[in-house]
Amino acid sequence: MRISVSSDMDEPVARALVAALRERGHEVRPHGALKSGDDPQWAVCSEAAAREVAAGTADQAVVCCWTGTGASIAANKVPGVRAALCTDAYTADGARRWNDANVLALSLRLTSPPLLEEILDAWFAGEPSEDADDRGNVRHVQELDTTRAH
After folding, report:
1. Which of 4, 31, 90, 99 could form a disulfide with 52 if both were Cys (CB 3.0 to 4.6 A apart)?
2. 0.90 cut: is pTM over it?
3. CA angle 95, 101, 106 (to 5 degrees)
């Protein structure tokens, strides 16, 4: 799988994330502080990673900043992206299952290496639900990308 990864800081957990994804056999597309010469601002690098998902040049993305909040907000501004800030494996599983999330947002402050592995295990094991209500909610969120506020 092609996975865009962004981080606004070159922190140990960001490096561990890239290594873990590669160990799992994924092609990593780095952004921000993870790529020499890239703009490391959380809004800029999170948008860049999310745009690759929206364009189909990446299958998923993982966006990181100190709390994970800014990265998730920036990613969710890109039409077609459903980013979820996950601080534990249960939330990651639910984000994939009920929300069909295609971008994982992580906190550089809260995510330890063992927790990172648990979150990634749950994220990649998770499959989008086929339940009609769940699919209807995801469709509604997708429609929000194309409607304008009045």
Report:
1. 4
2. yes
3. 75
